[in-house]
Amino acid sequence: MKKINFVFIMLIAIFIVILSIGYAFFSDSLSINGVATTVDFYSGDALPTEPIKFDPWNDRYHTRSEGVDNVNFESESWNGDTFTLIYDKKAGVTCAQIHNVRYTISFSNPTELEYTNGTISAETIQNGMNYIGTPRASMNKTSLKPGEAIEIYIDLTFSFCAALGTQEVKATVSFDLQGKTRYFYFVLRYT
């Protein structure tokens, strides 16, 4: 009985030594070739944007297709997921003519991922004195590769008969990023 136990113990010891030597050779010869990269994770609903100065001569993010007497640029701001553009109606504005104006802005995709399934819509938020018609919004791309730029347009028809009331239009841009729909807003306000 002692001899059988001794042989059994010796076999287990030899098995453990062989297993240890095999593991040592295996782990010594194992090498991983390649580069690990990480991609930023974007939380929340905001679409990451890199604003582009669309009118560098005037140091502005926007352009407009036509000037309108007594409707003057007041300010613009690009804060995270919202671009806000404000025009001021001055005394002397008249409703002698209906104006069709296009406002354009541009941004690029600052991420390492493609934006897909792009959509845009526009709505009137305020229309004091009913001076503006139904706004239309469009964009020149529905997908955006990393570093690629896009143009966003708001087209309006208006006839300001006086400097009264506030008019505001909002365009909502959406793209899918990392499996989630994310948003950017273009707000146009006449005061």
Molecular structure report:
By secondary structure, the protein is mainly β. It has one domain (50-190): Immunoglobulins (Immunoglobulin-like, Sandwich), CATH 2.60.40.10. It is built from 1 helix and 10 strands; from the N terminus they run H-E-E-E-E-E-E-E-E-E-E. Strands 1, 2, 5, 7 and 8 form a 5-stranded antiparallel β-sheet that branches. A hairpin with a 2-residue loop joins strand 9 and strand 10. The chain is rod-shaped, with a radius of gyration of 31 Å.
Total domain count: 1
Indicate the mean pLDDT: 90
Helix content: 10-25%
CATH architecture term: Sandwich
Strand content: 35-45%
CATH class: Mainly Beta
Order of helices and strands: HEEEEEEEEEE
Helix and strand content put the structural class at: mainly beta
Main sheet summary: 5 strands, antiparallel
What key phrases describe this protein's structure?
Immunoglobulin-like; 191 residues; 5-stranded antiparallel sheet; mainly beta; rod-shaped; 1 helix; 5-stranded mixed sheet
Brief overview, please?
The mean pLDDT is 90. The protein is mostly beta strands and 191 residues long. Strands 1, 2, 5, 7 and 8 form a five-stranded antiparallel beta sheet that branches.
